[in-house]
């Protein structure tokens, strides 16, 4: 039981992994945010698809780093 508790405390929680990866994509996140905010009353599907894909690619690359 004690060994199991020790193993669980060493695991990286998914939110921690997300936060670490997202923190490495501030440039892409800023560009995406600016695109959305530029005309937030007219947001529609794929409005900022290019910026979103760059953010997604950055996040996926960062999340694969050890």
TrEMBL record:
It comes from the Eukaryota. GO terms for biological process: mitochondrial respiratory chain complex I assembly. One of its GO terms (cellular component) is mitochondrion. PANTHER family: NADH DEHYDROGENASE [UBIQUINONE] 1 ALPHA SUBCOMPLEX ASSEMBLY FACTOR 8. This is IMS import disulfide relay-system CHCH-CHCH-like Cx9C domain-containing protein. It comes from Fusarium tricinctum.
């Amino acid at each position: 039981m004690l060994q199991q508790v020790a193993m669980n405390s060493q695991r990286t929680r998914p939110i921690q992994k997300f936060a670490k990866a997202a923190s490495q994509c501030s440039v892409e996140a800023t560009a995406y945010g600016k695109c959305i905010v530029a005309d937030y009353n007219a947001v529609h599907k794929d409005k900022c698809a290019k910026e979103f894909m760059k953010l997604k690619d950055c996040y996926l690359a960062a999340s694969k780093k050890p």
